[in-house]
């Protein structure tokens, strides 16, 4: 081919001096140039497997569950009928087993709250232990009461701050847990600094400075969306602590006896968080009982009731749940509240 390119060159092309018939012969015998074809584009793995089109399946839905080691979609056909083990076990659990799991879950969340509060007060705890080990005779006679008071207060207040910030609902979400723990510790140290400034002003005879509520929206909002602000409620300026329901107000007023206004504000938020947590637990428990009662009613309709079904019907248990007035739907919707 090189010789042909030479003959076709524009500079001193000797072909122009050839006989026309010979030129025509050479042009016919010259092979056609083939244009270079671009290499085929590499196809992704998603295009090699048969997956539903975008119109059949939302793009936000993952091709494989999170349990798969290959989140790029490989072996999606093996995972299409997969059901997590906890869902299979939960589907065959009885009413009593579900209620037991609900109680165990609440106990676990309370234990985690205590563990994290102790972790946040580790220096106060170490100071108390050091006092027991290396303390003076006076410390031994008083059982290190001063260090004990500091540690006990830190532990209780850290737990209350975390309750108010929604820690009980964040157990299991590591990022939220850490964010709430750090912010609760920050608010507690801020409260101690405010108390120190107040005491110094009182000793000098100066006006006592006023500080913002540590759980105000400004303080809580600075921690980001992972920390839930304290539960809001209707506020009546003429009634102290009007966010506390009337039936629990006497108990709450006994709890805040001797507390400073700042501590009382934290106690109020923690008290409301406890009430909300109890409400959610009660809603879940009622939902389990309603579902079991509906299944029991279906077994009666099919003529296959168990001995337990007959006992509960004879005691009027199902009538207490009022299945005919839409109680199940009411409780299912209430769980989201």
Automatic annotation (TrEMBL):
Residues 47-60 have a biased composition (Low complexity). Residues 1-64, 200-238, 306-337 are annotated as: Disordered. Residues 1-15, 210-222 have a biased composition (Polar residues). It comes from the Eukaryota. Residues 21-35 have a biased composition (Basic and acidic residues). This is Uncharacterized protein. It comes from Tothia fuscella.
């Amino acid at each position: 081919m090189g010789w042909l390119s030479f003959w076709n060159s524009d500079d001193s092309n000797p072909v122009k001096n050839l006989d026309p018939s010979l030129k025509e012969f050479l042009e016919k015998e010259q092979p056609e140039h083939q244009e270079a074809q671009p290499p085929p584009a590499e196809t992704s793995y998603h295009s090699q497997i048969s997956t539903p089109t975008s119109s059949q399946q939302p793009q936000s839905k993952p091709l494989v569950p999170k349990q798969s080691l290959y989140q790029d979609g490989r072996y999606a056909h093996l995972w299409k009928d997969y059901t997590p083990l906890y869902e299979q076990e939960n589907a065959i659990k009885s009413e009593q087993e579900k209620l037991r799991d609900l109680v165990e879950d609440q106990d676990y969340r309370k234990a985690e709250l205590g563990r994290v509060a102790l972790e946040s007060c580790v220096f106060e705890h170490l100071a108390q232990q050091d006092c027991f080990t290396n303390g003076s005779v006076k410390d031994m006679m008083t059982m290190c009461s001063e260090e004990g008071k500091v540690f006990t207060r830190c532990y209780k207040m850290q737990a209350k701050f975390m309750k108010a910030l929604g820690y009980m609902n964040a157990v299991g979400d590591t990022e939220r847990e850490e964010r709430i723990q750090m912010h609760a510790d920050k608010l507690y140290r801020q409260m101690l600094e405010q108390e120190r400034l107040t005491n110094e002003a009182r000793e000098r005879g100066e006006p006592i400075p006023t500080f913002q509520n540590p759980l105000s929206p400004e303080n809580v909002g600075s921690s980001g969306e992972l920390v839930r602000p304290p539960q809001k409620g209707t506020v009546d300026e003429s009634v102290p602590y009007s966010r506390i329901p009337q039936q629990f107000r006497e108990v709450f007023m006994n709890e805040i006896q001797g507390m400073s206004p700042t501590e009382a504000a934290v106690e109020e938020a923690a008290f409301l968080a406890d009430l909300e947590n109890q409400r959610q637990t009660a809603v879940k428990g009622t939902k389990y009982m309603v579902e079991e009662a509906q299944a029991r009613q279906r077994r009666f309709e099919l003529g296959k009731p168990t001995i337990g079904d007959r006992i509960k019907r004879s005691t009027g248990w199902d009538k207490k749940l009022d299945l005919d007035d839409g109680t199940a739907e009411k409780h299912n919707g209430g769980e989201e509240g």
